[in-house]
């Protein structure tokens, strides 16, 4: 999978946005308002973060997950896109498991995404 791979983190509150933005280098994360389909009910004010996937972005994402969930087990939905490929994954972290291991495990299930090469960028 060559080129730009995007990670979308949906269902963020304004507090989530602020905490996430603090973990990423300036200019590496953007936010879009969440769409609520016409006639549907949803939380107003939610947004999604859009991040270009890189070693730095993964490190920032793992730091944010650690801050957000503070050692507890969790499930966090993410969306990965590259060209016509759009997949949704759920990062499942069990209590006591390293967060980075859970993230890498889920990303390694994305067809054509070379997680090892992505992580090597940061070395």
Question: What would you say about this model in short?
Answer:
This protein is α+β, with helices and mostly antiparallel strands. It is 33% helix and 29% strand.
Keywords:
single chain, 123 residues, alpha+beta, five-stranded antiparallel β-sheet, 33% helix, globular
Q: Major β-sheet, in short?
A: 5 strands, antiparallel
> How much helix, percentage-wise, in residues?
25-40%
Q: State the end-to-end distance.
A: 20 Å
> Count of DSSP helices?
4
Description of the structure:
The protein has 123 residues and is an alpha+beta fold. The chain has 4 helices and 5 strands. It has one domain (6-35, 43-120). It has helices at 14-23, 55-69, 99-107, 115-120, and strands at residues 6-12, 29-33, 47-52, 74-82, 85-93. It has a 5-stranded antiparallel sheet with strand order 2-3-1-4-5, with helices on one face.
Topology:
Elements: E1 6-12, H1 14-23, E2 29-33, E3 47-52, H2 55-69, E4 74-82, E5 85-93, H3 99-107, H4 115-120
Antiparallel strand pairs: 1-3, 1-4, 2-3, 4-5
Helix pairs in contact: 1-2
């Amino acid at each position: 999978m060559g080129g730009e791979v995007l990670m979308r983190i949906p269902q963020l509150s304004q507090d989530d946005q602020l905490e996430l933005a603090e973990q990423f280098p300036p200019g590496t994360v953007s936010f879009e308002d969440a769409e609520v389909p016409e006639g549907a009910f949803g939380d107003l004010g939610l947004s999604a973060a859009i991040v270009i996937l890189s070693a730095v972005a993964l490190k920032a994402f793992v730091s944010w997950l650690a801050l957000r969930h503070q050692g507890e087990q969790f499930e966090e939905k993410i969306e990965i896109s590259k060209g016509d490929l759009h997949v949704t994954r759920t990062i499942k972290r069990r209590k006591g498991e390293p967060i980075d291991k859970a993230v890498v495990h889920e990303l390694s299930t994305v067809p054509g995404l070379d997680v090892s090469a992505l992580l090597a960028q940061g070395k």
